[in-house]
Design a protein that fits this description.
single chain; 18 strands; mainly beta; globular; 3 helices
């Protein structure tokens, strides 16, 4: 028995020493690697007038379910290298978010300097989405800020180069360019859909203010379509501690810049309605309020999107409105339960502007866990 314990101890020491050595090397080199993620699942009842009602599981009621790896290495003299690999998935089925790419939410590597800023290369969020989405109060599934402010929706571009300046007295700017936003993979650069994103941010304690501009350059726009979707976003939020308020405005032209607006008229580009993509404009407004109550928070958000076009039958497109009211309660630092109700007019989950003037309601509750 003594020999057994001695052998076991030596074996354990032999296995542990390489791990300890690797940990020591990582510590000495200044390398940091972290695995992280979110699992969010709930149940919801959704009703669309004229279509019917659906009840069942809801993936990502509060935030998308995902897992990822991120790391940073200190290169000395103010320089550092960073990377991020991130995958979205559906906990109700275990499938990846798009059933195709592994790191569909992000796959980039970056090099930065304290005084020069950071350059990131790979699949990632645009500057406009990163800055604009920071104004969101309530991120409820398909009823958050991105429902009407599509440049702040949860989308990523492939083949994207982003540069962020260092922060200076609360100010930061960013610029990004995608050589092939939706990974068409054609040899000539101008044969692919290209995207440009600019942003300016000011953050000082409780105050946040942002301004962004995005443009998509379609390589082969459908007939009658402008081919240059663009979006301007302006907004600010202020945390009064007892209350946080957020307000924003957006002007979107010639279709949705993120190619994430659905395809009701079969244009093949997810630009949204054909009348919008052919030169239409959408002005959108957002107002959100969050009220802390102990370990919980009440979240209220309203947005309005006003189009300026007419449908094929000559009818003027109506304004779409979206209102949500919800509550989150922190069971711990990592686990949150939530419930919300949402109502949208002239809006369905598939079409932001519905010529049939449908109304959509959703009631949901769920739990999210971060690790």
């Amino acid at each position: 028995m003594k020999k057994y314990y001695i052998c076991a101890a030596l074996t354990a020491a032999g296995l542990a020493s390489p791990l300890a050595a690797r940990a020591d090397v990582a510590a000495l080199s200044g390398t940091e690697v972290q695995i992280y993620g979110v699992v969010d699942a709930g149940v919801a009842v959704t009703n669309v007038s004229g279509v019917g009602s659906r009840s069942g599981m809801l993936n990502g009621g509060l935030t998308d379910s995902l897992w990822g790896l991120r790391g940073r290495e200190d290169l000395g003299d103010g320089w550092s290298a960073r990377f991020q690999l991130e995958n979205g998935f559906d906990p109700s089925t275990g499938r990846q978010a798009d059933d195709r790419s592994l790191f569909n939410y992000g796959a980039w590597v970056g090099l930065g300097h304290d005084d020069l800023g950071e350059l990131r290369l790979g699949r990632q969020y645009t500057v406009g989405k990163t800055y604009g989405n920071a104004l969101e109060i309530a991120s409820w599934k398909e009823m958050g800020m991105g429902a009407t402010f599509k440049a702040s929706d949860n989308y990523q571009f492939s083949n994207l180069v982003n540069y962020y300046t260092p922060e200076w007295q609360g100010w930061q700017a960013g610029i990004g360019y995608s050589f092939d936003a939706d990974a068409q993979g054609k040899f000539r650069t101008n044969a692919n859909n290209r995207a440009l994103s600019l942003g300016l941010k000011y953050e000082d304690g409780p105050l946040l203010a942002v301004a962004t501009w995005d443009q998509m350059r379609l390589a082969q726009p459908p007939q009658g379509v402008q081919g240059r979707p663009q979006a301007l976003q302006l907004g600010a939020s202020y945390d009064f501690e007892v209350l946080k308020v957020s307000a924003a405005w957006s002007r979107q032209r010639n279709g949705y810049v993120g190619l994430d607006g659905g395809d009701p008229d079969n244009l093949g580009q997810n630009l949204g309605p054909a009348a919008f993509a052919a030169g239409g404009t959408v002005n959108a407004w957002l107002l959100g309020v969050s009220l802390p109550l102990g370990r919980g928070t009440v979240l209220a958000q309203w947005s309005l999107a006003k189009p300026d076009w007419q449908w094929a039958d000559g009818m003027t497109a109506r304004k779409a409105q979206l209102m949500t009211l919800g509550y989150t309660y922190e069971l711990s630092k990592r686990t949150t339960v939530y419930a919300f109700a949402g109502y949208a007019s002239n809006y369905t989950l598939d079409n932001q502007f519905d010529p049939g003037n449908s109304h959509t309601t959703r009631y949901a509750m769920g739990v999210t866990h971060r690790f």
